[in-house]
């Protein structure tokens, strides 16, 4: 990517983000612009995606005009870097999920991601993260963690509480968020991050490791959210495949199950029903988040590895491989 800028016009965290972008092969100016807009104005960005903004129709119309503009420029300049379709153009289409994804995590897997003690530079195997554009886990200063007010919750008229449950992990993302959203974010250490994960799990919310092409093509955050607020979960339930399984499915011990229905109420993916006074798991829908395991008073649920699902994201195993 070729990009000229005057340092005094940019904040230090913006310069750090830009320097890393400049060293990425195939990362275009439009990818950088997309990443900057996404990180700089996440509440506007997510508000457009969820349809919660009062001026959503106007903004979507603007996105469509920009898509047409750059598509025509790319067609007129087939040999230029414009030939690469900017991923933000997918904001208003079904292919949005090609560029922005979440990997469902168990609570323990999420905790391991916020307790990494070493620099990490790896590309996850396709059997773990089968995405095309964003599979890297590159953790610079992995102990740098910021708790951000969830853009999905913040865009809702009556959101779940608390708001500051999005965990941004590693540089240059943490400094960018802390510098540009100081009133909506706070620095936390690993212990505090684990407390946030534990509290969200106890509320019945789901952990996702999020990857995005415009965010330097890699992992940058752990979302802890619910189906009533999370735009990604709602999109997934509506047929846009923005999330992939943890690699596990819920297994029911029929001897312990009393058919009480607590797991049905707690399942964020509507993968559990009760038939003949026993819980039944739809394995095609189950994402292996583990919420039902902790919510079942009879301890009838457990997580089993499903070979038909992607491999779990176990950061320590990936580092050691």
Helix content: 25-40%
What are the secondary-structure elements, in order, as H or E?
A: HHHHEHEEHEHEHEEHEEHEEHEH
- Total count of strands: 12
What's the structural domain tally? 2
Please identify the structural class as seen in this structure. Answer: alpha+beta
Strand percentage, roughly? Answer: 15-25%
Radius of gyration: 20 Å
Q: Which geometry do the CA atoms define?
A: globular
Parts with pLDDT < 50 across at least 5 consecutive residues: 77-98
pLDDT averaged over residues:
86
In whole angstroms, how far apart are the ends? Answer: 31 Å
Our count of helices gives 12
Largest sheet properties: 8 strands, mixed
Structure characterization notes:
There is one protein chain. By secondary structure, the protein is an alpha+beta fold. The chain is 34% helix and 22% strand. It has 2 domains: 7-243 and 312-320, no CATH class; 248-305, Alpha-Beta Plaits, CATH 3.30.70. The chain contains 12 helices and 12 strands. Strand 10 (272-275) and strand 11 (278-281) form a beta hairpin.
């Amino acid at each position: 990517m070729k990009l000229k800028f005057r340092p005094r016009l940019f904040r230090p965290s913006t310069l750090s983000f830009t320097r890393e972008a400049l060293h990425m092969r195939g990362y275009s100016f439009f990818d950088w612009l997309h990443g900057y807009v996404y990180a700089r104005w996440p509440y506007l960005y997510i508000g457009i995606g969820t349809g919660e903004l009062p001026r959503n129709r106007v903004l979507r119309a603007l996105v469509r005009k920009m898509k047409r503009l750059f598509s025509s420029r790319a067609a007129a300049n087939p040999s230029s870097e414009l030939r690469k379709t900017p991923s933000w153009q997918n904001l208003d289409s079904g292919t949005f999920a090609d560029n922005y994804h979440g990997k469902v995590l168990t609570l323990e897997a999420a905790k391991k991601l916020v307790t990494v003690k070493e620099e990490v530079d790896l590309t996850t195997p396709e059997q773990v993260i089968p995405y095309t554009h964003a599979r890297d886990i590159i953790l610079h200063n992995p102990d740098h963690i910021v708790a951000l007010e969830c853009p999905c919750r913040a865009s809702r008229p009556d959101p779940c509480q608390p708001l500051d449950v999005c965990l941004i992990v590693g540089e240059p993302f943490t400094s960018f968020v802390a510098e540009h959203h100081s009133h909506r974010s706070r620095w936390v250490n690993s212990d505090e991050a684990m407390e946030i994960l534990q509290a969200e799990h106890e509320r019945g919310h789901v952990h996702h490791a999020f990857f995005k092409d415009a965010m330097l093509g890699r992992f940058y955050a752990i979302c802890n959210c619910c189906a009533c607020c999370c735009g990604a979960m709602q999109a997934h339930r509506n047929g846009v495949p923005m999330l992939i399984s943890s690699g596990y499915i819920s297994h029911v011990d029929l001897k312990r199950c009393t058919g009480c229905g607590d797991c049905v109420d707690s399942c964020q993916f509507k993968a559990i029903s009760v038939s003949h006074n026993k819980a039944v798991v739809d394995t095609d829908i189950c994402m292996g988040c583990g919420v039902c395991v902790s919510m079942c008073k009879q301890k009838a649920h457990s997580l089993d590895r499903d070979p038909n699902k992607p491999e779990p994201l176990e950061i320590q195993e990936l580092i050691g491989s």
